[in-house]
Specification:
The complex is a heterodimer of chains A (about 400) and B (about 375). Chain A has about 400 residues and is of the alpha/beta class. Chain A folds into 2 domains: about 35-250, no CATH class; about 250-408, 2-Layer Sandwich (GMP Synthetase, Chain A, domain 3). Helices cover about 30% and strands about 30% of the residues of chain A. In chain A, the strands form 2 sheets. In chain A, strands 1, 2, 3, 4, 5, 6, 7, 8 and 9 form a 9-stranded mixed sheet that branches. In chain A, strands 10-11-12-13 form a 4-stranded mixed sheet. In chain A, strand 8 and strand 9 form a beta hairpin. The termini of chain A are far apart. By secondary structure, chain B is mainly alpha-helical. Chain B has a single domain, classed as Amino acid/polyamine transporter I (Up-down Bundle). Chain B has helices at about 10-20, 35-60, 65-110, 115-130, 135-160, 180-195, 200-205, 215-240, 240-245, 250-255, 270-295, 305-320, 325-335, 340-365; strands spanning about 260, 265. A two-stranded antiparallel sheet of chain B has the order 1-2. In chain B, helix 1 packs across helix 11 (about 270-295) and helix 4 (about 115-130) packs across helix 11. Classes of the chains: A alpha/beta (about 400), B mainly alpha (about 375). The interface of A and B includes residues 26 and 367 of A.
Chain lengths: ~400, ~375
């Protein structure tokens, strides 16, 4: 037998060599790899309704131009670029948009999905399927409805705090949800669960641009101290099934968000007897919705809400060191909360959509009864009895006791 | 059975990983909707009862594998064909698991990689470990079990911190009574994954402690049932029963909900790791069971049939079905038509024969 210097048979070394050769392709790594410089990271997607069925879906992709975000090669052009594709389905529209881009549209980092109000009124059911099915997109993308304007506008507005408008929108939502109010994170899977609620629907944050919409997409928008066009989070879009039914604003929206247990912190005002207002920061509210339904045809829905608040602004001669005064104020705070919730319930009934989850409460309490009434839950929802138990505690008055107006 | 002895902790870990296997990532027991976790627990208990039967057979024949005592009890004429049927079953189960794993990988991350390449790589790694021996497989499982459990712990904590868990989605428990739950136990969860423990009858002769061994394995099964039920409850409380029902891999979207300050996110790659680890061990155990069977029935050295068997598994998994839908549908029907025969009926007959024989052999002295 032929042997080489080390004494390994030639045939065996040939075999080894060919085995190594066969293993070589594995060294290149994943079959599916796309290098970073061949990817175009999509930060936000706007979904508009086209005029005809042939271009029903008009998708605009906000693509990050990485050199402009950071790096020495910046050319001073816009930090993001917008590409639009049209098609009969979402997927076709995506494929269409990719004709214009030099790189692969990478959907793994989509943070914002904006659907136009027009489309939302027609129904978003068909949009949602691809969003949950596609393995690249993620469920944690935030959903918005563009209020009264094409969704595309919102993806092409320059913003101050982040070079990427989609990121700016996410941060805006988080700021407002942490401090002032009723907008909260609404992710893809929550919208789908909302659509699936019998007799109800999701509520989705609204967003709009105000000001000079013409030049919103240019760097000039930011050259003045007061930006000419501002992207703002506004209102809650209330849905019945997958169709937009109406917009909730102000106290109604706040009550709705309270009912969904999504409010972290909000200012609450109580009218002072001497005129003017006293402002509280409600920093915690917990809501539990329960149902009493021995007879499912006549359910009683019980909303229990407990809140903690701090006095923030009290320009008044009231004696805040007196527990009774504080007690009285917290009673009025309670009344204010009750009022908000009542407004929210009224509005939901007016829109005929149980997006506040009363049906779910009934289902938890009496599943068999729910099965009997779920087909005509819409009517029951409009008439069923609702009891609201609210409790608010004013924990402290911040850095001062009485206002200086007391000692005058 | 040779000089190889495998310790109890290794047996615990291989049994636990085998049980978690693919079951951890799929929507197990979902026939009963949001009560899937109840159905898994019940399935686990039923599975342990069935396993007690296997344990009885093992205690009566501590040195023989399943094929060994089948031939001994039923005679060569019946025993050998039955043993061969079991070998085919194990090869088929290994192939099915590989198809599961390969397709899930393709669906989840590797969209363009051909299934054949994925499968070949998987079976090669499996064959390599088995070439090194069964004790290597079980020792490897100890390491990977730690990884899987750590991933589970990490994911749970992260999900809690990101506030995605809503226990209301698990309520009301059993809204339409216990019947759908029992139905899903019968159709799914006692067979998959708990009934599949039948292949451990081929490995148990390697146990270092024949008294305690089966109890340790049952402990692993109980742990697996608890972990699987917990995972399923977690999936449902994060995504809701509706989405879980429609997801072939619900653990993936559930974990992808983890997002902590937009900093810790996209950790779904962990699920892919769990999937690969699970498929690898499940497939390898079936593969090993088949190999031991082949070497016993045909009196061949264990390693001789390793690569041919690997090839059979690979090809079976490729021609098993045209699409994943077909594959799952087939699997679903096998669960309550064919498998019960192998996992309940035949062992029951053997138990009967053993019991009768030992009854008479005890009588003889007086």
């Amino acid at each position: 037998m032929n042997r080489n210097r080390r004494g390994i048979p030639v045939r065996r070394s040939l075999l080894l060599f060919s085995a190594l050769l066969a293993l070589m392709p594995l060294l290149t790594g994943c079959w599916d790899s796309v290098e970073l410089n061949r990817r175009a990271i999509v930060s936000g997607v706007a979904i508009d309704r086209g005029e005809t069925e042939a271009d029903k879906y008009v998708l605009s992709f906000q693509v990050i131009v990485s050199e402009e975000i950071s790096g020495e090669k910046a050319r001073g052009i816009a930090p993001v670029a917008l590409y639009t594709g049209r098609g009969r389905t979402m997927f076709e529209a995506l494929a269409n948009a990719s004709r214009q881009t030099a790189r692969f549209l990478s959907l793994g980092h989509v943070r914002v999905l904006v659907i136009s109000e027009k489309f939302a009124r027609e129904g978003i059911r068909d949009i949602m399927d691809v969003l949950e099915r596609e393995s690249d997109t993620r469920l944690t993308s935030l959903m918005f409805i563009s209020k009264g304007q094409p969704a595309k506008d919102l993806m092409s507005t320059m913003t101050v705090f982040s070079k990427i408008p989609a990121n700016d929108l996410v941060e805006k939502l988080e700021t407002t949800s942490k401090q002032f109010g009723y907008n909260y994170r609404m992710e893809v899977d929550e919208v789908i669960r909302g659509i699936q609620i019998r007799g109800g629907g999701p509520t989705i944050n609204g967003v709009q641009t105000t000001g000079d919409k013409e030049n919103a997409g240019s760097n000039d928008n930011l050259k003045t101290i007061a930006p000419k066009a501002i992207l703002r989070v506004t209102g809650l879009a209330a849905f019945k099934d997958d169709k937009l039914k109406g917009w909730l604003e102000g106290e109604t929206a706040l009550g709705t968000a309270l009912l969904q247990n999504q409010v972290k912190e909000f200012p609450s005002l109580v009218e002072d007897r001497e005129g003017g207002y006293i402002a509280f920061n409600v920093y915690q509210s917990t809501v539990k919705i329960a149902a009493k339904a021995k007879d499912p045809e006549h359910p009683l829905i019980i909303v229990n809400i407990s809140q903690q608040a701090a006095l923030k602004e009290g320009p008044s001669t009231l004696d805040y060191s007196d527990p009774e005064v504080i007690e009285g104020l917290s009673d009025r705070l309670t009344a204010e909360t009750k009022n908000m919730i009542q407004l929210a319930v009224q509005e939901a009934r007016r829109l005929g959509s149980d997006y506040i989850g009363f049906g779910e409460a009934l289902r938890r309490e009496n599943p068999r009864g729910w099965n009997r009434v779920k087909d005509h839950w819409e009517e029951l929802f409009k008439t069923c009895e609702v009891k609201i138990n609210a409790d608010a505690v004013i924990r402290h008055t911040d850095m001062r006791g009485n206002s200086f107006q007391v000692n005058k | 059975m040779g000089s190889v002895r495998i310790g109890l902790s290794q047996f615990f870990s291989i049994a636990l990983l085998f049980e978690l296997g693919t079951a951890l990532v799929v929507n197990l027991g979902i026939l009963s909707g949001k009560d899937a976790w109840v159905s898994i627990l019940l399935g686990g208990l039923a599975g342990i009862l069935v396993f007690l039967g296997y344990a009885y057979l093992y205690w009566k024949h501590p040195d023989l594998t399943f094929t060994g005592y089948t031939t001994k009890l039923l005679g060569k004429a019946i025993g050998v064909p039955v043993s061969i049927a079991y070998i085919v079953l194990y090869l088929n189960l290994a192939a099915r698991d590989m198809r599961d794993g390969g397709t899930m990988l393709a669906m989840a991350t590797m969209h363009h990689t051909p299934l054949f390449i994925l499968s070949t790589l998987m079976i090669l790694s499996s064959a390599y470990v088995l070439h090194k021996g069964i004790e290597v497989l079980t020792r490897t499982s100890l390491v990977f079990l730690m990884i899987v459990l750590l991933i589970g712990l990490f994911s749970t904590i992260m999900l809690m911190l990101s506030g995605s868990i809503n226990l209301n989605r698990l309520l009301p428990v059993m809204e339409t009574g216990i019947q759908p739950v029992l139905e899903s136990v019968v159709r799914q969860s006692y067979m998959f994954p708990f009934g599949e423990m039948v292949c451990f009858t081929m490995l148990m002769p390697y146990l270092s402690n024949s008294r305690k061994g089966p109890w340790v394995i049952m402990g692993a099964m109980l742990t697996a049932a608890l972990l699987l039920a917990y995972t399923m409850a977690l999936n449902i409380s994060v995504l809701g029963a509706d989405i879980v029902e429609r997801s072939p891999l619900p653990l993936m979207p559930a974990i992808s909900k983890i997002s902590i300050s937009d900093f810790i996110q996209r950790v779904d790659i962990f699920v892919v790791m769990v999937l690969i680890i699970g498929v690898f061990f499940k497939m390898s155990v079936f593969f090993a069971a088949a190999l031991i069977g082949i070497s016993e029935v045909f009196k061949l050295p264990y390693r001789k049939m390793l690569y041919p068997a690997a090839l059979i598994i690979l090809l079976t998994s490729m021609v098993d079905a045209r699409s994943f839908i077909e594959h799952l549908d087939e699997g679903g029907r096998l669960l309550y038509t064919v498998y019960p025969f192998f996992m309940i009926v035949v062992p029951a007959v053997l138990i009967l024969v053993t019991a009768v024989k030992s009854h008479f052999s005890e009588r003889r002295p007086d």
